[in-house]
Design brief:
391 residues; VC0802-like; 2 domains; nine-stranded mixed β-sheet; binds adenosine-5'-triphosphate; binds magnesium ion
Amino acid sequence: MEKVLLLRYGEIHLKGLNRPYFERVLLSNIEKALEAYGDVKVIKAQGRYYIENLGDDPRIYDAVSRIFGIISFSPALKVEKSMDAIRKAAELQLKEAMEAQGDFNELTFKVESRRSDKSFPLNSMELSRVIGAHLLKNFSGIKVDVHQPMVTINIEIREWAYVYHRIISGAGGMPVGTNGKAALMLSGGIDSPVAGWMISKRGVKLTAVHFHSFPYTSDRSKEKVIELCRILTRYCGPIRLYVVPFTRIQQELYQKCPDNMLTLLMRRFMMKIGEIIAGKEGASVLITGESLGQVASQTLESLIVTDDAVSMPILRPLIGMDKIEIIDIAKEIDTYETSILPYEDCCTIFVPKHPLTKPRLDRIREAETLVEGEELIKEAVANVEVIDIKG
Ligand code: ATP
Ligand code: MG
């Protein structure tokens, strides 16, 4: 009898011809995500993955629950396809389930079987009935409820027999790497890590771009962004982070352009530099954490001004979300606590007192010509720092 993990994947079934490719990428992502857990073995069989040689580090469950493409998973007992072994495994699983239930008067349960090996002597109905009767006979304080049982003992007859009672939700989404690559504009705030996570969940590999304003922003704020990347790698795989020196551009804009346009002009420069870095990285789109109306630079008019700076599409997965909804996700994916560390942000230093909320594109474009844009961008790109974050 061996303890294994049984992993189910969903959406990729729908992908028709691409399916073998998706399965290969997912397999490799699972292997990489579990590398740190010793000698685990990942086996693909009949629309499932099995993880064997689990070891006893409980963090492996968290690691599995973060892999995009997995819809659910179950810790299961893998046993021989003999009634004896299945009975024993069902007893153990019921015992575990009863302990997990805590207080109850009478525990309701049912047995549910699936048989993909048709040479097994009992069909699934018979198997459920026999094992159910066996459990009733051997445990007190339990009764069968086929409609809304507190516990379901699942039995699957495949190459081996698998017996389990827990089905744990996975991260869902699609395997990272099956849907291209994007450059995430990553500030140290709450929103952008969530935006990156959401797009990566759809199978997109990430590279990150951060604008740093040394000495106005400290090394601590850079460390914070590195830490955010590190948290994201648990879901998204390795991330290459580009740290772009942004001080010179901000100072030039500050000295030469109208104060109320500063944020928007900065944003346009960020996008232009992001587009260049994305190009180098083979990323085809940019991602930001913008949400409609959240601040002056995120009104419809402002977003149009930002879009105009680049030809690359900008994905804004948070566009229709409230801050509270975004915070909920940030907490769930564990970026929140790091995001709220109170270090300076490059945009809070040169903030205009009265930023435009209804900017006119022609005026912004005109103001932009007051600085040597191309040169400033070239200089910034030439001085980027590249940090590979493996997790
Ligand atoms: P966040 O919480 O992600 O910082 P925010 O609500 O503070 O977002 P802004 O500061 O207006 O919003 O930034 C909007 C978006 O612009 C961010 O979500 C991010 O994608 C990008 N951005 C802002 N500052 C930086 C930066 N220093 N480096 C990289 N991208 C940035
Ligand atoms: Mg911010």
